[in-house]
Amino acid sequence: MKIHVLGPLVVENNDISAVPSAPKPRQVLALLVLQANRIVRVSALQKELWGEEPPPSALTTLQTYILQLRKALSSALRISVRQVAQEVLVTQQSGYTFVTRPGDEVDVTVFECLAREGRDAYATDQTERASDLLRRAVSLWRGEPLPDVRRGQLLEAHAARLEEAWLNVTEQRIAADVRLGRHHEVLTELAALTVEHRFNENLHAQFMLALYCAGRRPQALQVFQNFRHLMIEDLGLDPSPQLQQLQVAMLTSDPSLDQLVTVPARSQFPLAS
To answer: Under a CB-based contact definition with an 8 Å cutoff, are residues 214 and 250 in contact?
Structure first.
């Protein structure tokens, strides 16, 4: 079965979709597959669908949605509704579990695995491998997560987590590419990303480094000045000491700048993802 959440919701088998058209059952399915192989409590599903004040009929209505999903999965998988209830969309004491099976294609699982391997490769100076793994991870995305699903509190939180993971992997992939000397290749991408994420210091640092390494020091320093103006005008803050150090290194053509290009990942050092 194909299960995709890094873009529009896809749950299908042999091109037969199990995604319902009705908004609330679609919400339930999305939350279940995002937490595949884990129990999603009834209370969590009710909160997702109705917020903090579910109606008196919430439990009965939720059970109806689960039955609808089981019927859709039964059609897609060509097994009985009973078998779906026993093996795929399973009732637990406190909720429900969507169980993936060997051979299922779950895009978020593949993404997380590639991202983890890519980070490990980057940390051990396997930069070419890191770039390849992280690029493959990002290529799994088909747009923002679940744009075709109505989002309650829980789905919003999951979507935000996924988008942050995408940005983290993208930043580190760019850092690997800069380390490999692919400065010109990432400039257009970084120009767009710094506009979209205008307060992200990591991206601005990478943009500065890429421009500097491409022999465009004036433009690199202008990126800093523009970012500094934005921070002061909108937030009343100066750029971080790390970003200011990067500016000084560029102003003085500091030989240590080569080491700045190869700083480890953002989880350890703020200015290199």
So the answer is: no
**What does pTM read for this prediction?**
0.85
CA dist., res. 80 & res. 100, Å (int): 17
Is residue 5 within 8 Å of residue 98, measured between CB atoms? Answer: no
Does 213 score more than 90 pLDDT? no
Backbone angles phi, psi at 4, to 5 degrees: -120, 130
Provide the terminal-to-terminal Cα distance of the chain, rounded to the nearest Å.
33
The answer to whether residue 74 scores a pLDDT higher than 60 is: yes
Q: Which domains are seen in the chain, by residue range? A: 9-99 (1.10.10.10), 183-273 (1.25.40.10)
What is the side-by-side strand order in the sheet with 40-41?
40-41, 95-98, 89-91
177 φ, ψ to 5°? -65, -40
